[in-house]
Amino acid sequence: MIRVGVVGLGKMGLSHLSMFNAHPEVEVAGICDSAGYMLGVLNKYTGLKTYADMGAMLDDAELDAVVISTPSSMHAPMVRTALERGVSVFCEKPFCLDPADSAALTALAEEKGLVTQVGYHYRFVGAFAEVKRLLDLGAIGRVTHVLAEAYGPVVLKPQGSTWRTKKALGGGSLYDYAAHPLNLVNWYLGEAERAGGSVLNPVFSRETDDEVFSTLFFDPATPGGAPVTAQLSVNWSDESQRKMTTKVTIWGTEGRISADRQEVQVFLRDGAAVPDGYVPGWNVKYTTELTEEVWFYLRGEEYSAQVDTFVTRVIKGETEGVNNFAHAAATDRAIQLMVDDAAGVVRAPATGALAAPAGRTGRSLPGAVRSRVRSLLQKVGVAR
Amino acid sequence: MTTTTTEQVRMDRLLFGDNQFFGVNHMSEEKARAQAMKFQDISVVQSVLDDAYDEGVTTFMCTTHDRIALVADHVRANPERYPDMTFYPCMPYAHKYANAMTEDGPLGAIKRFLPDEGFLDAALRGSRSLATKDIEGIVTLLIDSEMKMFAGLRTPVIFLQNVVVDLLLGLGFNEAFKIFHDHVRARYGAEPGFITMNTPALLDVLDGLGIVNPIVCSNINKVGFRMSGGMEAYHRMLAEREFRAIAMSVFASGAIEPREAIEWVCAQPNIESIVFGASSRRNIAGTKALVDQYWVR
């Protein structure tokens, strides 16, 4: 039995609270939120102990772990506080808006030997996990290209102002939608070297992106070969979708895999290393056969599965595991590659004499500095 | 079939569900999209409902989706065509609230869903509730607004949707079930129903609230798809617990062949009804024939 506190009771926070509270190995020892009304209602009707802020809860509730579901810009300082107090952390995605924070917090958690996890629940969807298994088996040979897509109906007209409409606070489809397929691409291909042709465009929003497109370049599978590429296509102003719909399609030398939440479609060439249960040609596996039973169901097995995985890891003290901070930090770096690419920021090679301050994990540079660095780099032929 | 007391609503063995009309398919996004296209025109939805009705499946278990209001209007306008037509509303239709909030803001959304009896009474109930953290006023207000579209129609069972039931269940917000239960009985003279993916856990909670012999709709299928708590617990529950079970997802989204699926469900004890969705008269008739064949109780 572990003692868990929940911080932030928005849609995801409430959903996490419900699942953690239903877990047989968890006692929810405290909840906190900036909105007192929600806390009052929950305290009155569920008896859960409420706190005005996370600090007070950490002082009092003797927590083993904390669930942080606050707006993204608040993640880094709150996660740091929790880690410094020796508490394991489940943090909602995206992890940190600044990859330097992601790196520092990953190191801090490792130093403290604490269990960490970030809420990239797609890695717990049976169909997407099957894709990972097939790739690890080499079922489609050498991977050459991935198309990762996410579409859905979130921003369908100009709207008012919340943290989700502010880029600096972690709003926009890049952090909210694109982070998911990007995280899957990281899982399948590892870490990207660079991004090209990145577009972060508004459709209806004034201050954030509603559509995101980019090409990511990864190490070639064979030395000296062409880079492996992943194209990201994301739009959260797409009313044709009933809800968020994510799809990945992967081409390899021996076949093709396409997967969404419901099913995996696999084409294997004759002569491919055909895994057990598959045949050359077309194969289709459905969610019903790829999904494992969960102890409590709310909104999809993947949400329960990620909660159960975290709880089990905390009980066992397993710092390694799916979606730990190191994995989420890789996705934060990929996001930064795209942000920089879209803004025209040029990062010099880390070994170059004119290297930009923080290499590929750094912040965006102010415009004036950016153009000076770029013109310098152009002079020495490093940049176009 | 379970014997029912005189106070209880007698439920049909087969109920017609509405997932297929709204692009919900647990197996394939492509199929879901094809269905969304097919049923874009409400007259196509109505035509399938007519087919179900004419095959003798006269209970429509439906979400409170905006477009269902059009079906309700049609049935209200043609009472002679649908003398036995019965609705089992399932609420809330969550997307409706999310969309209304985006378009009109919170106040506008509340206004949009207010019951006919008038803004003042409802607003009073709402604001007093907000002030005192008395959730009862808010919940009953929302139920009334959801029921607006069914005014004048037969709604003997009213369901709370699984996303809400299971969220509340996890939170331990048990009193909400009692509030729903009491309001549905008192105001609509209807039997409250609960849709869940966690039947064993829910039954324990409902028992604790003194809700006797509740109608509970949940996945019950041969492969154990989305039967949280495990197949064994479901077996035990069906054999031993007092509740009125409605089986949904009996085909596990197509993972089980129809005959095998129906034969298995009909062999389980204590199941009172099966809810299923279909897009064609042939499939409706096929399911009806299988149920008639295997349900010999």
UniProtKB/TrEMBL annotation, chain A:
<feature type="domain" description="Gfo/Idh/MocA-like oxidoreductase N-terminal">
    <location>
        <begin position="2"/>
        <end position="120"/>
    </location>
</feature>
<feature type="domain" description="GFO/IDH/MocA-like oxidoreductase">
    <location>
        <begin position="128"/>
        <end position="257"/>
    </location>
</feature>
<dbReference type="InterPro" id="IPR055170">
    <property type="entry name" value="GFO_IDH_MocA-like_dom"/>
</dbReference>
<dbReference type="Pfam" id="PF22725">
    <property type="entry name" value="GFO_IDH_MocA_C3"/>
</dbReference>
<keyword id="KW-0560">Oxidoreductase</keyword>
<dbReference type="Pfam" id="PF01408">
    <property type="entry name" value="GFO_IDH_MocA"/>
</dbReference>
<protein>
    <submittedName>
        <fullName>Dehydrogenase</fullName>
    </submittedName>
</protein>
<dbReference type="InterPro" id="IPR000683">
    <property type="entry name" value="Gfo/Idh/MocA-like_OxRdtase_N"/>
</dbReference>
<dbReference type="InterPro" id="IPR050463">
    <property type="entry name" value="Gfo/Idh/MocA_oxidrdct_glycsds"/>
</dbReference>
<dbReference type="InterPro" id="IPR036291">
    <property type="entry name" value="NAD(P)-bd_dom_sf"/>
</dbReference>
TrEMBL record, chain B:
<protein>
    <submittedName>
        <fullName>Uncharacterized protein</fullName>
    </submittedName>
</protein>
